[in-house]
Design brief:
This protein is an alpha+beta fold. Helices cover 38% and strands 16% of the residues. The protein has a four-stranded antiparallel β-sheet, sandwiched between helices.
Length: 178
């Protein structure tokens, strides 16, 4: 898909087609696109945990997501995104390079996740990024190491409905030129 069209058409989807499953091969292709994103000093701290089985997805939705997000993610694969803490934005001695500290880990993961959702859309899939989740329960259920910061859950699948484009701010509302 042409890039400008891709970014215009990508939307958050809250209804997925349960009859169309996302394969491990598709997830791997999407993750490959994600890891092409830049990261602080090429630290590559993004990590992904894919939940593809129906049984695990049911358990995850019941234990780790509030009801409305669990309902929004029905029929989708679930991908938990994390980053390795205290590396991106830090010097070799462990001190933060600037005042942002682990903010760079969030930033880098955001770049990776943007590639993730755009590649998914390019492949005909849709997504919903969910930040309201129970990080402690996710860590326990998926056995995520303590040195990783749990950030988001991405529902990934084939849309059952078409999303409408919400209004966006004008460039002039957010840009200052000097």
């Amino acid at each position: 898909m042409e890039f400008s069209k891709l970014i215009e058409e990508r939307r958050s989807i809250r209804a997925f087609d349960a009859g169309r499953k996302v394969s491990e091969e598709v997830v791997k292709e999407i993750i490959y696109a994600a890891i092409q994103a830049p990261s602080w000093k090429n630290s590559q701290t993004a990590r992904y945990y894919a939940i593809l089985s129906d049984e695990m997805a049911d358990r995850f939705r019941a234990e780790c997501l509030p009801e409305y997000n669990a309902n929004n993610a029905l029929g989708a694969a679930l991908v938990v995104t994390t980053f390795v803490s205290n590396r991106s934005g830090f010097e070799r001695d462990g001190n933060p390079t600037n005042e942002c500290g682990n903010g760079w880990g969030f930033y880098d993961l955001g770049l990776h996740n943007e590639n993730f959702i755009l590649k998914a859309k390019d492949m005909g899939l849709d997504s919903l990024i969910m930040g309201i989740r129970d990080g402690a329960k996710i860590r326990e259920l998926l056995q995520i190491p303590a040195e990783e910061t749990v950030v988001s859950v991405i529902a990934l699948g084939y849309a059952a409905t078409e999303a409408q484009k919400p209004k966006r701010k004008a460039v002039e509302d957010i840009l200052k030129v000097f």
